[in-house]
Amino acid sequence: MRNAILLAAALTITGCATAPASFPTEVTRYRVDEVGRGTIALVPDQGVDNGPEYQTYALAVGDALSKQGYTLVPDGAKSVYVAKIGFHTETRPVRERSPFSIGLGGGTWSGNRGGGVGLGGGVSFPIGRGRDREDALSMLSVKINQREGDLGVWEGRAQSRAIGVVGNAVADKLAPKLATALFTGFPGESGRTIEVK
Predict the structure, then answer these.
(1) CA 140 to CA 142: how far, in whole Å?
(2) What band does 76 get if pLDDT is binned at 50, 70 and 90?
(3) What is the pLDDT of residues 124-178, one digit of tens each?
(4) C-alpha–C-alpha distance, residues 95 and 98, integer Å
(5) DSSP state of 161
(6) Which of 68, 77, 169, 189 has a Cα at 20 to 30 A from 144?
(7) Residue 14's CB: how many other CB atoms inside 10 A?
(8) Helix, strand or coil for residue 64?
(9) E strand segments, the chain
């Protein structure tokens, strides 16, 4: 009976998969039975500064509302509805894994005169240092109220992530995406959370 053992090692450099460039947007909405249309003014929600970042979100929300049949009017002008806009962004540092790894593979074989069993396996480990980046998680909220009596008609929240985006670039990148998702299928099913890609 004759046994033979074959050992092999292979060195391979492979790229590891990176996080997706685009994340879905999570949307939750609440509404009364009837959500009417008409003139609407955009205002910052309580505690929101009326600065450049707000203006970016307001522009995106205004565009989305116009597509839903609302007529935008300047803040302070007479309108049937008021849209209160809020937003919040959190950033966190993330250490990416090295894009390269070394794979060590091995195999054995044994047999006698026409029969045999093959076994194989391998391990891999990263080489080099990963890079640092910042991820941003941004949330947009919109409350549509009747101006008379300040009665709530509709409210929605949308949130999504962006990779490697910081500062004012977060609003530039995410505001249109969040607003579009928030008003997709408007007014939507009350109390249900959906994902919009």
Answers:
(1) 7
(2) confident
(3) 555 545 555 678 899 999 999 999 999 999 999 999 988 876 666 788 889 999 9
(4) 9
(5) E
(6) 169
(7) 11
(8) helix
(9) 10-15, 25-31, 39-44, 71-73, 81-95, 100-112, 115-126, 132-146, 151-163, 193-196
